[in-house]
């Protein structure tokens, strides 16, 4: 059966109310397994390790079947004094300064990954997925992700599985709501992409907390998911990766 993978980005104490609304609406549509991309200390203003109420809430979500995924540490890139014009273009304009793992060294990435896992250690289960903020992950940082024991990462255009290393190309639907023109462009682009992907084996839908307060965007996301649920099984990235790995082992 074809798969639908829904992920919710930027889960943190700062976005909890919106995340609750999103998960509640998704549950109504029959989506009970969502990959929750959690930020340990969102913009340095929301340390999860000091927030018992948030820890309990996230634990409950995981216990009901959602998957916890590490999503950066601060979700904010530290500006470098020697940034090239390309770095500035990519990190400041494309991601509004969120590309935390865009050009990290192995050691810097390993430190943040270790801190992130330690902060999420209250969870009742292991975190096996890492997704970089804005999907920007340097080569050295990806090596650090592998070394830290994660089983997979994702980018906007693919899912990368470690051990054995393999890549499944599948472009995710994702909406941008930072400006009015971006909302309109997202609605058009995702409508086309959803049709183009209708017979693909894997459909990926990436949701951000801001999507739920943009009426037309949230309406479109719910419609696409409801349609997909009729003919696809909705699974977390973890479950998808397990299946793909066992399949590749079967095949030899
Ligand atoms: Zn993010």
Structure description:
It is a single chain. The chain is of the alpha/beta class and 252 residues long. The protein has one domain (2-251): Glycoside hydrolase/deacetylase (TIM Barrel). The protein has helices at 16-28, 52-63, 85-94, 106-119, 139-147, 180-196, 215-231, 237-251; strands spanning 2-11, 35-38, 67-70, 129-130, 152-155, 158-161, 166-169, 173-174, 202-207, 232-234. Strands 1, 2, 3, 8, 9 and 10 form a 6-stranded parallel beta sheet that branches. A 4-stranded mixed beta sheet has the order 4-5-6-7, with helices on both faces. Strand 5 and strand 6 (158-161) form a beta hairpin. Helix 4 (106-119) packs across helix 5. The mean pLDDT is 91. It binds zinc ion. Zinc ion (ZN) is lined by residues 9-10, 71, 75, 133.
Brief write-up:
By secondary structure, the protein is an alpha/beta fold. It has eight helices and ten strands.
Looking at this protein, list some descriptive labels.
six-stranded parallel beta sheet, 10 strands, alpha/beta, binds zinc ion, 8 helices, 252 residues, four-stranded mixed beta sheet, TIM Barrel, 42% helix, globular
Number of helices: 8
| Portion in helices | 40-55%
CATH topology: TIM Barrel
Outline type: globular
CATH class category name: Alpha Beta
End-to-end distance, in Å? Answer: 21 Å
Mean pLDDT equals 91
Secondary-structure topology with pairs:
Blueprint: E1 2-11, H1 16-28, E2 35-38, H2 52-63, E3 67-70, H3 85-94, H4 106-119, E4 129-130, H5 139-147, E5 152-155, E6 158-161, E7 166-169, E8 173-174, H6 180-196, E9 202-207, H7 215-231, E10 232-234, H8 237-251
Parallel strand pairs: 1-2, 1-9, 1-10, 2-3, 4-5, 8-9
Antiparallel strand pairs: 5-6, 6-7
